[in-house]
């Protein structure tokens, strides 16, 4: 009798956990926040230092393609209040230190 009551109490106690709201998950944002205003100031022919001044350091510089800079932004567990980047994936291609091509995905 005592075992049955104990098992019943344990089952009801564990089932009550689903009544609580889900735990808070911290929004994790990684990458570069690039605005459309910054993107409009970006021009073909700018030097690498001018681009770095405007956008900051790139998120990714490929070892095998050192002239290709990637500005990316991701957010995990984001809420409607989480700050978002207006540009999620931006690829800049340089030729001899001068901006040659802009790819905005």
From TrEMBL:
Ranges that cross the membrane: none
Compartment list: Cell outer membrane
Gene Ontology CC terms: Bam protein complex
Keyword terms, alphabetized: Cell outer membrane, Lipoprotein, Membrane, Palmitate, Signal
GO molecular function, one term: protein-macromolecule adaptor activity
InterPro entries: BamE, BamE-like, BamE_dom
Signal peptide stretch: 1-18
Keyword Lipoprotein annotated: yes
Keyword Nucleotidyltransferase appears in the UniProt entry: no
Organism domain of life: Bacteria
Positions of the Outer membrane protein assembly factor BamE domain: 31-100
Membrane topology per record: Lipid-anchor
BP GO annotations: Gram-negative-bacterium-type cell outer membrane assembly; protein insertion into membrane
Subunit structure: Part of the Bam complex.
Protein family: Belongs to the BamE family.
Function: Part of the outer membrane protein assembly complex, which is involved in assembly and insertion of beta-barrel proteins into the outer membrane.
Annotated protein name in UniProt: Outer membrane protein assembly factor BamE
